[in-house]
Amino acid sequence: MDTLSTLDELRQQLLTQKICPNLAASATQLVMGDGNPDADIVFVGEAPGKAEDEQGLPFVGASGRFLNEMLEAAGLVRRDVYITNIVKYRPPNNRDPTPEEKREFWPYLMRQLEIINPKVVITLGRHSGMCFIPDLHISRDHGHARKVKYREHEFLVIPLYHPAAALYNGGMRQTLIDDFLAAAKLAETT
Ligand code: URA
């Protein structure tokens, strides 16, 4: 079976196994992911927001526009990478996902990464980064690659700031662009 069909099967499993039924009840739809199922780079955000919930695609709102800008600055094209979130339903009023919600989605995210098998996993924001690297200090560790083991799989994870951080803090913009460039280079040479 090809990668796209295997990912679609995983999507069906998420629906039939009724993951986070409370979130599912308040959300419009499951936001599974977007992009190239055979990508070298997978971006992992936190959870869908309003625009993502409406369109069924990750990072299509304000932070999505900034993510696209960062990708372009790093010489990457959105359709070549894969983008997803830890939690795949929008939490009500964009509240932070709870640890329990993240835990419920975690095995499915891991399966998603196993299927895509990227060279590099880039986490966006502290919350996403801490799921992979529990002792993460984003201001210290951003841009530094770490090997993370999950069962027999090993992922190269690079924690980055969330694009929304740069929306509210102009000084962070260049830091993010620099980190994106370095991460893209690492993916190319790995
Ligand atoms: N922020 C995220 O972390 N994920 C999205 O999909 C959109 C905004």
Helix tally? 9
- Rg over CA atoms, rounded to whole Å, is 15 Å
> If you average the pLDDT, what whole number results?
95
- Residues in helix, %: 40-55%
Using the alpha-carbon principal axes, give the shape: globular
Structural class: alpha/beta
The CATH topology is given as: Uracil-DNA Glycosylase, subunit E
Look at the structure and give the CATH class. Alpha Beta
CATH superfamily: Uracil-DNA glycosylase-like domain
Which small molecules are bound? uracil
Tell me the series of helices and strands, N- to C-terminal: HHEEHHEHEHHEEHH
Protein name: Type-4 uracil-DNA glycosylase
Keywords: 4Fe-4S, DNA damage, DNA repair, Hydrolase, Iron, Iron-sulfur, Metal-binding
InterPro entries: UDG_Type-4/5 (IPR051536), Ura-DNA_glyco_family4 (IPR005273), Uracil-DNA_glycosylase-like (IPR005122), Uracil-DNA_glycosylase-like_sf (IPR036895)
Enzyme class: hydrolase
